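Suppose a colleague, Dr. K., hands you the sequence of a protein chain of 689 amino acids and asks what its three-dimensional shape might be. Before reaching for any lab equipment, you can write down a predicted structure in token form. Begin with the sequence itself:
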Amino acid sequence: MTKGANVVLGALGDGDVESVVVSLGWVSPTGEGDADVSVLLLDENGKVRGDTDFYFYNNPCAPDGSVQLLGKTPVGEGSEDRIGFDLKALPDDVATILVAASRYGSARFDELEDLRLTLSDGSGEPLLTYEVGDAGGVSALIFGELYRRGEEWKFRAVGQGYEAGFAALASDHGVDIEDDAEDDAEDDVEMAETVDDAPEEAAAAEPGGEMSAGDAVVEQIPEPRPAPEPVAPVAGVVPPPRTPDAVPVARKTRPRTAKKKVTLPKALKKSLAENDAWRGARLFPVSALKSDRDREMRATSVLLAVMAQVPEFGRRLTAGFGAPAGRMETFTEVSLPHGDTPRRPDGVIRVERAGKLWTALVETKTNGNPLRAEQVQAYADIAARRGYEAVITLSNDVALEGSPLVEVKIDRRRKNRVSLWHLSWAEVAHQAQMLIRHEGVANPAHAWLLEELLHYLLHENSGCHGFQNMGPAWVPVRSGIQDETLCQGDPRALETVESWERLVRQVSLGLGGELGLKVLPVQRARRDSDAVARRSRMADQLCLDGKLQAELRIEGVAGVLGVTADLRTTKIRTSIDIPAPEQGYPLSWAKRIVRELAEAPADLHIETLVEGETGGPRGTLERLRPEPGDMLPKSGVKITGFRLSLFKSMGGQRGNTEAGFIRSIDEAVHKFNAGVLAHLDRMVAKKGA
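The predicted structure, expressed as tokens, is then:
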């Protein structure tokens, strides 16, 4: 799950979701860092009903069994704190269960790694995982919350931190922090010798003889003393932090048991049955693929099998083609009669809903092989005669608006109309990545299947790499621009523009999959023009100025990401315009930009945009860091915004090799996102987004 997302527990699995276990985990690089978990039960107003609604290490269980702190369990390189909840036993006036953790003293959560929350059902089957990636320098953190909505329980990934510590978190939710709470806490906890150094007499002094390893050492007192009282939570007092280097003990009249130390398992030594060069077993191997036919058959079978087994994925790929939401079946190696020679499409997709069937024939190509018009035409004719609804083609190529990859004639005299649809392998990989990396899949087995599919699609030997060739016109057009011999109206310029648009669409899919956001190319066209006319104008402009230009709109970002490939200078420019803030002073704006870009590349160009003029001051970030005021125009003209730009050398080859044009564009966009946009979230985010 991602921060802020929520889900209904009943929709997560078939197990018992009325009894769940929440596990909080983290890894300490030093091996010594730790944190204490705590639970708050809140009413409809978001406040505790009383002090009994507060559970921590010294008050671990609710009398009715609805909350139980189960302690730590070593896992992997760290440990997990587990909490059991019986949702059926909770009183009706408990609306929310808050699950949090706090650190000791000056320790902060950014000192820990792999912060995560896992929720499992009553049988121990994991239902969801939330990884907290932005905890920051806080000493208290709300991982998540369980809350009621009508008769259902839901979970929300919160990830909210408190710099002031657990006292601030508790106060926000109605726990009274009295003035003398700190003094009471200090009286409650005293430092003593560790158990390993305790004298045997201390153990003998305790009732029952020997002392266990987890028991605290209590100072020997010559006078008789009353029997120890059971420890209960102190009303209105936040649990005191514990120092990991010493064992806390109760004051003399109220001894308590210290928390047992968790010992992590030792790292296993390598044996003769291990080798660093070995690779883990994969569900979909690619090593045996020798020919294009092998790649097509394997890719089709792998994709259709995962579509049928993972309903979320199959539905996502077919919803746009008019398929209903129903039970999906997929087939390969299908033979269909067609004249004297039967036709064998690569696959068939069939969806059943309310006694009705939706059927589509599938034709795939891999490794850059083009679709054949006569083959697709034959499948369209077969589909029309047999009452099928669609023909779906898959290839490395990207379909463009108004320019189909293959020309197919549809017999409109037939009652059954067949739709022709196209998917690129890049789009298939994008949809799988969005589900498993950002939106989440409820079933762990389904998530694993999608991971295996994504690994297969991205493997260099699968042939499913998306658009990877600018076409035969690329080199002549590039040379014609550099020696100024390319003329307007040259069909090769139009072919290059079409390849550029396909590349931009694929780069948008890759960036969207990385960010988990919708990224779309911006098509600026006249109202009365279509896509073909727009590309013709772009081809003429390419002949004039030698530039290929595109704009990408990222969901939640106010500006657009501009990409320009200058074929004359062989430079790629990626840029974004930041509008000037509505309030504040220009010098404050300049200082803020420099501060936000502290980790951006030093060669980032910053240009000040001014009203009524072509441009204002400009310079590299390295030069502007010591003097942000150099960004301000001397004439005092109104500043309308700032333009941030990065420049990169352009690959000349038409393919996707190290020196290829396609790879250089992809690298430029991802470098700008990681080096610039990632540090400007607050400055470029849309208002209210």
